[in-house]
Structures are given as C-alpha cells and as structure tokens.
Design brief:
19 strands; 3 domains; 6-stranded parallel sheet; OB fold (Dihydrolipoamide Acetyltransferase, E2P); globular; S-adenosyl-L-methionine; iron; Elp3/MiaA/NifB-like_rSAM; 12 helices; alpha/beta; transferase; pyruvate-formate lyase- activating enzyme
C-alpha cells in the first residue's frame, strides 16, 4: 500500500504532513507518486480565500485523475473549518479529516476502506468528538536536512482579521518533554536545522500558566539536544516577546540570530482596529534591545495593507515604520475579508485596486532597505547549509542563519555541493533577496548522536500529562 501527500499552506502544515507520513509508514504504507498511490492526501490551507481556492483546485485536480480504488482525503485547515460541507466543492472526495484528528489518519483510512462501495457517494468526515488535544505522541521521521517542529497548535490571540481560533481552538502547547523528544529524533536522523513554529510561538506554555515559557523551553533544548543543529524561531507574537527571550537567544550559539515576528502594521490606530499589540514604543524598544544583544540579528516580519479604514496617512505611517526599523526581510499581503471575522464587518472596506497599489508601494519601499541590509554582509564569513543545486546556472543554493527555509532567499555558491552539507563562505555579492558567496571551507559531515532511549523529565522539572 502506498500514499502520497500534497502539502499546502504554512510551515505548520509541513510539520503535520511529516507526522502523517510517519504514522502511515508505521501502519505499513510506503510513499509513492500520485499515479501509484492507494491514498491521496491533500493537507489543505483555509486561512485566506486564495489559499482556500488553491486547496479546492488541488483536490479537484487529483480527483479528476483518480483511478479506481484510489482514495482521496482532505486533511488540514480547510477540512477543519468546513467539515463535510467540503464535499460539495470536491465531488471525488472520499474522506475529510481535520487538524485536530490527523493523528488517527491510519485508522481513518481503514474506516474508509471498510465502507460499503455504495456508501461512497459522499465523503466521510471523521466525527468532531474524535479530536485529539495536541499531537504529543507522534514520532518524527525527517524528510530532509531541515525540519519544522510545531510546539503548539491553535491560537488564543484576538486578531480581528483571523479565522484560525474559530476552527483550531485556543492555544494548546506541547509539553517540554515531547518537544525535546521530537527534536532528539530529528537530530538522530541527521537534521541540520530545526525551525520551531506555532501560530503564536511566544505564547508557548501560557495555556498551563507559564507566562514566559519559550525561553525556558529553549534552555531545555540546549541542555538535552546534542549536536550542532541550528534552532530557528518563527511566528513570534509581539505581545508575548520578552527581554529574557533575547538574553537566551544571544547566549546560545545554536539558536540562530534570526526572529520572524509578524507585526501586521506600523500604525497604532490600524493595529487597534486589528486587535493587535499597538504600543509601537514597546516594539521599537524590543528590536533595539535585540540588536544591542545580537548586532548581526536578522529580523523578518509581515504586514497587511488595505485593512478596513486604512487612510493614506496610516499607510504612510507603515512605510515610515519600515524605514525606522530597517527589517531584513518583509512579506506584504493585501487584506482579505474572511467570513465570520470582525474585520469583515468593519465599515470603510478598501477597494481592491487601492489594496494592490499600496502593496506595490510597500514592496518597492522595502527594496532599498533590503538591499542595504544585504550589502552590509559583504566581506563577512558565514556558515551555510546546502539546500539544493541549480543545474541550469551551475549554482548551489544554500542558506545561512539569516535565511529561513521556504520564505527567504539563498546564498548562491558556484559549483555543486550536497544537500545538508555545511560550508563556510565569504560573501562576495548582494541582491535584495539573495547573496553570493565563495567557499572557503567545507565542514566534515557529522555523525548524528544516537537517539536516547528515554528523556529525564525529572531533570527538567516536567511530567507528561
């Protein structure tokens, strides 16, 4: 029996897809192509209208070429949000399983196979009461040299534009021992980089009363996980970021001097309407403290333009904020009114042509800032990890601590090197998104430390619940 998973959406979905693959392999399945797979699974995204449309189109494309006996399953956020109603959009769908149920994927597929053929006129959705709290018990099997490790699911933030809490529920953090065990499993398989992700990374542990849990978790990871693996932090919420987080990041070399903190806007009035942290003085101070502690830190953020009521003056305040902070990496999105959110009901919705024009201006505004931040790297010697090879141009695609997988650019190196290999390069060229480098040293491939038989939870003061 074979399976094939298509992953859409964010890094958190990638982590879940790897968990799905691990569970299916444990149940006797093997990965395969869409043509040879017995089960086709699309891990969908349901965050924005464009993402929903992509998910539905992907499901229908697979459904149209589905062979007799193949099962088509929708997993992920779109499934969690719409449940059985998703079958109205995808006639060939056989099964629907949500974000809080995927740890039962093997049993679910077996249920689909045991159903009577005549009962398959409509997709079967796993009942809501079959939800799990958080995927604490799933071992990880690495899919490459870089891996996402989801430390929490759900979200308790009140953002007015976001649908995620409505279908994923409040924040549910994995216990520290589970996170450590998963990290150890990944490192034992040769993973070179672990990217910690959550919908609200800096809220880790708040659901059980830990007000500053992320720095504590990082300390435990540094103590318990051997090897020279990089740890990278993405999706930090500004309201929960602390000076202690900065101190822990600066003290441990294995934690990349990199932080992704989606801020969504740079005008306090827009941020208030978004129900986001809006005290810009605190945000300025946090970034100043971070750059004092780590002068070479790489800062990434995302912004939404065209939010309801956004005036030209408020948009200009966003551009001024970008100039003041000088972010290394910026993603810009146009506002999407999501049904059921407070933002969709706000007055003064912005016309699409104005949203697009502001998106273009924001991206153009960031270009010289990004280039200047890149040019500051000229002459530096950086360690990079190889992601792949561009045969057409004869270039190795690598990343330093400054570039996250999937969303940032590359350090381009002439010649071919193996994925997962570590190189020391001197930066010789800079572009707004990519750097160019010359190899000065190849790092010997390391032998992964053995995965320990057990973790001393007493040593970190935590018991699994």
């Amino acid at each position: 029996m074979k399976y094939h998973v298509v992953t859409l959406g964010c890094a958190k979905n990638i982590a879940d897809s790897e968990g799905i693959g691990t569970l299916l392999r444990a149940a006797g399945y093997e990965p395969g192509t869409p043509d040879e797979a017995d089960v086709l699974i699309v891990n969908t995204c349901g965050f924005l209208q464009a993402a929903r449309q992509e998910s539905i189109e992907t499901l229908n494309a697979l459904g149209e070429r589905k062979k007799p006996g193949q099962l088509l399953v929708a997993a992920g956020c779109l499934s969690e949000r719409y449940g059985a109603a998703l079958a109205d959009e995808v006639p060939a769908l056989d099964g629907i399983i949500g974000t809080q149920q995927w740890t039962r994927i093997a049993d679910f597929i077996q249920q689909l196979r045991e159903r009577e053929e005549e009962a398959r006129w409509r997709a079967y959705a796993m009942p809501p009461d079959a939800r799990n709290h958080v995927a604490d018990s799933v071992s990880r099997r690495a899919e490459g040299h870089s891996a996402y490790l989801k430390i929490a699911d759900g979200c308790s933030a009140p953002c007015a534009f976001c649908t995620i809490p409505s279908f994923k529920g409040p924040q549910r953090s994995k216990r520290p021992g589970t996170v450590i065990r998963e990290a150890q499993e990944l490192v034992a398989q040769g993973v070179q980089e672990i990217v910690l992700v959550a919908q609200d990374l800096t809220a880790y542990g708040r659901d059980w009363g830990e007000t500053d849990g992320l720095p504590t978790l990082l300390e435990h990871l540094m103590q318990e996980v051997e090897g020279d693996v990089w740890f990278r932090l993405m999706y930090a919420y500004p309201g929960h970021a602390t000076e202690r987080l900065i101190e822990v990041m600066a003290r441990h070399e294995r934690i990349c001097n990199y932080l992704d903190m989606p801020l969504q806007h740079g005008d306090p009035n827009v941020l208030k309407r978004m129900r986001r942290p809006h005290k810009l003085e605190r945000i300025y101070r946090f970034f100043e403290q971070m750059r004092d502690a780590m002068p070479d830190v790489s800062l990434r953020t995302t912004f939404i333009v065209g939010y309801p009521g956004e005036t030209e003056e408020e948009f200009q305040n966003l551009l001024d904020f970008m100039s003041a902070v000088q972010f290394d990496k910026v993603g810009v999105f146009t506002f999407s009114p999501e049904p059921g959110t407070p933002a969709a009901e706000l007055p003064d919705q912005i016309p699409e042509e104005v949203k697009q024009e502001r998106w273009e201006r924001a991206m153009a505004h960031q270009q010289p800032i990004a280039l200047a931040r890149q040019e500051a790297q000229l002459g530096r010697t950086l360690e990079v990890v190889v992601d792949g090879y561009d045969a057409e141009n004869g270039l190795t695609l690598a990343r330093s601590y400054r570039e996250a997988p999937e969303v940032d650019g590359y350090v381009l190196v002439r010649g071919q090197y193996d994925p997962g290999e570590r190189l020391t390069v001197r930066i010789t060229g800079a572009m707004p998104y990519d750097l160019e480098g010359r190899v000065v040293k190849r790092k010997p491939r390391r032998t992964p430390p053995p995965h320990p038989a057990a973790i001393s939870l007493d040593a970190i003061g935590v018991r699994e619940s």
